[in-house]
Amino acid sequence: MAMFLRKGLVVAGPLLLCLLTSQLFRWLDGVFPDGSFLLYAVKGIALGLCVGLLLPAGGLSVKSVGLAGFFYVAAGLLLLALVYQYLETVGVLCWPWLRAILSLNGQVVLIESTAMGFLTLTAALNTRRRK
To answer: How far apart are CA 39 and CA 87, in angstroms?
Structure first.
């Protein structure tokens, strides 16, 4: 019976997580206006968290390789890029030399925030605990 429950968790866990994420996306569409920077950013972070939780929700674990610090650094750099993009969107900052490498497109914001959410959650799940 325990083996059946484990196999059921491996199948149902990720499916339930995807179902909850899609419901969250529908709810967010009603909360934020269409094309809003924050809509893309929050959806991206939620999607990154969903992707990061797929293996744990399926009952699988990954051995820590000691790279959590680097994941936090990468997520921090993505956060800085997102903060700059937001400040430029609302008209607070405008640095032409950064405009050449950072886009304000909503799809780019979605992908950047997805990667940031995934990296942050992966780092948090793989941080070595002190005993």
So the answer is: 15
User: What pLDDT is stored for residue 27 in this prediction?
Assistant: 92
Rounded CA separation 8/22 (Å): 21
DSSP states of 83-121: HHHHHHHTTS---HHHHTT----HHHHHHHHHHHHHHHH
Cα–Cα nearest to 28, from 46, 48, 9, 1: 46
pLDDT at 76: 92
Distance CA 114, CA 2 (A): 35
Both tokens of 58, joined, read 């399926």
Give the pLDDT confidence of 2-33 residue by residue, as tens digits.
Answer: 667 667 766 777 778 878 888 999 999 999 99
Q: Is 15 exposed, middle or buried (0-12, 13-18, 19+ CB in 10 A)?
A: exposed
